Amino acid sequence: MNKKKNISVPESEYKSRYSEYRTNTEEQHKPENAKRTFLRFISLIKPHSFSMAIVVISSMISTVCNVVAPDYMGEIMNILQEQIDGRLAGGVIDFSATYSQLAVLAGLYIAASLFTFIQEFVSAGVSQRLVCGLRNDLNNKLSKLPLSYFDKQTKGQVISKIVNDIENVSGSLKSCILTVMTSIIQVIGSLVMMLKTGNLPMTFVAVCLVPVSAFISYRVSKVSKVWFRRYWDSMGDLNGHIEEMYAGHTIVRMFGREDESVKEFRSITERLGKNSFMANMIAGILNPVLTLIKNINYVSICLLGGFFHIGIHNGTISPTAFGGIGDITKFLSYSSSFSSPIINLSKIINSIQSSLASAERVFAVLDEAEEAPDNTENELSEMSEGLVEFKDVSFRYVEDRPLIDDLSFTAKPGSVTAIVGPTGAGKTTIVNLLMRFYDIRSGVITLDGTDIYTMSRDALRNNFGMVLQDTWLFKGTVMENIRYGRADATDEEVFEAARTAQIYDYIKTLPEGFDTVLTEDATNISQGQRQLLTIARAVIKDPRVLILDEATSSVDTKTEQKIQTAMDELMKGRTSFVIAHRLSTIRNADNILVMKKGAIVEQGTHEELLEADGFYALLYNSQYTDGIPPED
């Protein structure tokens, strides 16, 4: 397991480390430019311009209908007031005068509902297509990033970005876009209708809500953005810890580390809970504060409208300055329509800030430097010989920490080259460079005399078969896992590969044979059998070059002998690289590269190196207490 920190340290030291980690996290994840993130996100909508035009038009029509409706409602109230005043004077109430107004009002509300449905339906489709495209872009980007990126990221952080962050953007995208769009149109429309009434004092009181609300929203959102970013970072830490602990639950239990694991889990969840609480609490302040301002504004308009109405009846104010009770009703509706969008925006401010924080994390991945572009100058689809040469190759994982300098060697076609040395000597690094998992700083690596940097990575890697120390099998049948090495392999070829890997007989004993479904990580078979399956997968690819990185390290001695025999047969006629710690397994290698601190300190056959009595002899003899190597 990749442990981020030692969880068995004293509590005082643990708290000190956690405090330092928290400080570093807060400094590292300061909020980015929200405006730039928003504009970049909006640019993703351009391919959906036609659909968005429908949404905008539908939203405008729906909002206009809702804004205009109070005007007819006010007229109905005025007509009813006149009828009541006439009835008090001895007249007869006639409701027929309101029929036309009621018909128009019903039509407006029906139209508003219809176009609201259209905008909801179309925007839902746009939202899902946009998020689907964003998720595909992120997945494609991850496939193009160098391994050095994943060296700096936990699995949990990567999974959190492609699952949680994208889902968060998806969940708030539709509601946020519609709310913002509708709110803008509604505010403008309500303002126009309030100005149409001709009562500037009451309009001024209603408009006073805007600058106050905008200032409060700006201040609160600026702070909440920080906490939402920290929240999603903590979510990534939690995913990483869960993935790590459950993937290695056997080791955790074996060493009795359940309590420490739970303790760290609680620490992360407490940090996650704190960040979530602070983000939502700060964002949640907006709603009650702006609602209070809205109510004060509403009461002020009611009092002012009542003052005008009383003044009209007492003759102190000209009726032309303001109409009857219907006009007051209209203005109150417009005032509510004017202030409600501002309140609605405050309610979704936490969703907006949260989605922007998630979008920033996604965009940060999309902005990462990709692997150097492929060069298709030489598409070496099939190697004719298998000659591998390293010429003055230099490489380092960290810029200021040299690892390999001026490394040169030749692997002849069909030869077996073993690479040995202590941990950290650079054995696996050579394979990583040969496969172009990492790019060299200087020098040249060639296959059959062709520089590997003049061909595409796919064309290069198609010539290699690889068996790693860490097995990887996916949930699926045994047949599917072996055929993963070559998708067009026939069933008979799969059977033959299994025989070569010495696992055919074992597979036939399984309940469903080759159709037996392996669980996730193939935990329903032994580690040794998993390794045999990965070897069968390499066999079926029939590669020109084989790379075996401790391929037999996870099997017992008897199984190792069978695999070694099969491998000796498989390696005939192929250029092979074998990384080994058990030196007895590479005594028949044509050439042994002995590495130390990134350099080849010795090379030769097994007998030549033992006779030289150098570093290899020291390594070889140190594996046997009596200093006598085993007999063949």
- How much of the polypeptide forms β-strand, as a percent range? 5-15%
The poorly predicted ranges are 1-31, 317-321, 625-632
Radius of gyration: 36 Å
Q: How many strands?
A: 12
Short précis:
The protein has helices at residues 11-28, 34-43, 49-88, 99-144, 147-151, 155-197, 200-207, 209-247, 249-254, 258-284, 286-314, 325-347, 349-366, 427-434, 457-461, 478-483, 491-500, 504-508, 527-541, 557-570, 606-612, 615-622, and strands spanning 388-395, 404-411, 416-420, 442-447, 450-451, 464-467, 476-477, 517-518, 545-549, 575-579, 591-596, 599-604. With 632 residues, the chain is of the alpha/beta class. A 6-stranded mixed beta sheet has the order 6-9-10-3-11-12, with helices on both faces. It has a 4-stranded antiparallel beta sheet with strand order 2-1-4-5, with no helix packed on it. Strands 7-8 form a two-stranded antiparallel ribbon.
